[in-house]
User: What shape does this take?
Amino acid sequence: MNVAVCVKQIPDPATPGKLDPSTKTLVREGKLILDDSDAYGVEMALQLVDKAGGGEVTLVSMAPNSEVSGLRTALAMGAHKAILVSDDALKGSDALTTAKVLAAAIQRAGADLILAATESTDGYTGTTPVQVAELLGLPSVTFAKHIEVDGSTVKVNRQTEAGFDEVECPLPCLVTVTAGVVEPRYPSFKGIMAAKGKPVEELKAADLGVEVAVGQQVTDVAPAEERQAGEVVVDEGDAHERIVQFLEQLKVI
Amino acid sequence: MAFQKVWVVAEAFEGKPLSATLELLTKARELGATVEAWCWGGDVEAYAAGLGEYGASKVYSVGDVGGVLPGVPVAAAMAEAVNGGNKPDAVLFSTGYDPRDIAGRLSAKLNVGVLSNVVGLAEDGTSEHAVFGGTTVVRAAFSGDTPYLYLVRPKSFAAEPGGGGAATVETVSVPDAGAANGAKIVQRHVEERTGPKLDEAAVVVSGGRGLGEAEKFSMIEELAKLLKGAPGASRAIVDAGWVPYSYQVGQTGKTVKPTVYIACGISGATQHMVGMKGSKNIVAINKDQEAPIFSIADLGIVGDVHKVLPKLLDALKNRS
Ligand SMILES: Cc1cc2nc3c(=O)[nH]c(=O)nc-3n(C[C@H](O)[C@H](O)[C@H](O)COP(=O)(O)OP(=O)(O)OC[C@H]3O[C@@H](n4cnc5c(N)ncnc54)[C@H](O)[C@@H]3O)c2cc1C
Assistant: This one.
């Protein structure tokens, strides 16, 4: 079984984000890392391919500046190869454009199953995977908490507002995974060394026949209204009384 | 642009429209548009009155989708209507599991973009988005073809009835969506829940890593119960498996705006605060005087949750 995993390389979320003052889009320069939420999809893909008794895990990614450090992390976990679409024309592209690029790359790779995170850590629009599925004419199951492949069917526990649904879907299809789906491994030293030699195919949007048209713009950026700090009480053993009083004032009790 | 016609993708729970749906209807009405709703599932007639009261003049019902996930069939029916000439200027979806699927599908079918995480929407179509943990507001606008698709965070708008009569119901058939329509629900599992829903409760009591261990979350549940509220959580303890994801408040969880939010042992990371700083009153209990949560708390208690909470619980029990 061949699995394609959509992965995103993002600025380290631990460092504060920045907007480009002229384009007003997120600055994605410098070193990018593998989005944490994609480690789950990579791990899941590795385990499913292992269980199926063979096949390849291909990463598909879109990033500026031919950035590969995040891809190397996923390759070090065990993924076999990667397709990277890196193109200045794609800077600041919206979710649908990203989906068109990823869908074309997945088609090139060929896959029985496509995995993605429910949303990226930096952009969190959360629509790209389903757009990819629609562009490829495939079914999709979002918010997977558990995945099993049984012959040509994938069985997913899908998180819902009330609990979860057991969903079955024929392959090929796309599944988005939540953080709970599996515990990602850390790349081993051997894995890290092996990753250096694994193939990363770099492409432009035009190589995939994708036309870039951006249909949305940021028009304005402003600081949000700030909330003020109120009263601070250091507990001397009776702070609960102040809370009771506060709740009484609000007529909550 | 001015909106002439706006569609709202409606969701219901136990036969009643979700508050997130009523919020969108109210907003669509405010934008001065003709408002129409789309829904799926069984008993549409039962809640057409509720949708009408909040502004929908018409409800398109795709009916029972035969046990598949609704994203594909609902989007297919909507796209067919648009391509047949029934074209709204905008479609509003709330950021929920199924509406998000429908939005993604519809976007790709119509080749129009989606603006996600919308928290404000102006008459000219400009949307507002809270970024960097709500410290910055970004405004965005579409420049391409309509319909404009907006995925809106619940609790961004108030829900107010407009006094309209019941909406008329038009049944719409689902076009054949082929292989894409293959995701079938074989079994539903509903987790036990008592008390009000997290995003509708007047009081929310949330716990974080400062509770120290999973068992101590029972203090949060007990306090929430005594205050007729709902328990919530930071992501740290959801990820640690102490409580289900449905408890999570914040950027990747729920947005809550209760009368009182009580944060216990929560540091106040920006991603948490973006989900609760719209609360009318905030109480925080944290042993670290420097914790960021104090910067937005109306009442901050610098103290140990293991000392303050048991006494608070006793005091409240003695009152009742
Ligand atoms: C993309 C992204 C999305 C995220 N989305 C969310 C989200 O939706 N919701 C969310 O909550 N987080 C989210 N986070 C995580 C967030 O950044 C924080 O890691 C998380 O909120 C921290 O949870 P916490 O406050 O419980 O834990 P900590 O930050 O560890 O804070 C624990 C606090 O408890 C206090 N404490 C310790 N012991 C005691 C005691 N005995 N009595 C009183 N106080 C005590 C400490 O002083 C500390 O302030 C997200 C992060 C990322 C990167």
About this structure: Residues A 13, 121; B 208-210, 234-237, 248-253, 265-267, 269, 271-272, 275, 285-288, 291, 304-306 surround flavin-adenine dinucleotide (CB under 6 Å). Residues 2-208 of chain A form a domain with the Rossmann fold fold (CATH 3.40.50.620). Helices of chain A lie at 36-52, 69-77, 95-109, 128-136, 189-195, 239-249. The mean pLDDT of chain A is 93.
